[in-house]
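USER:
Make up one protein:

ASSISTANT:
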Amino acid sequence: MGTLLTRPRWSPFLVGACIGMLSWITFGLMGKALGTSTTFVTVVASLQSFVVPEHVKATPYLAKHTKIDWQFMLVIGIFIGAMLSALLARSYKVERVPDLWAWRFGSSKTKRYLAAFLGGILVLFGARLADGCTSGHGISGGLQFAVSSWVFFVSFFLTGMVTAFILFGKEGRKHVNV
């Protein structure tokens, strides 16, 4: 099976424990909860500060999010870590249209990319509306036993299951490659 770093899949228990420890570190060293959705605001505010700096200065929410911080670097680290993990495990592959999607909606890459983009916008909008993403609410808020975070997390999973059933039905299970 090789070393831990070359395995295509890690134990969810080990990964969960590591994420929990990372959450403790961010609380202890940064005084903030682990999360990623505020990075979108940082990117928007930073770009706007070049184009319309007076607007950013006049908007307190944007003004406090113009500096690249540890959370922004975490998002970049997630991408780099996932890529390194796939390369080390020799499991990297480009899959433009997954089998399940092709079975249900056809093999159009354009349709798949558009749906992924729109889905990402909806999830990001919901995360900002909820004042936190799945990592912010589900991990950090859950660790603090915040009722709002548990409501968010349960709602997120239930909505995901209902949406998957609406999109793919019972037959979709036969077309999943795991």
Summary: The mean pLDDT is 87. Residues 1-93 form one domain.
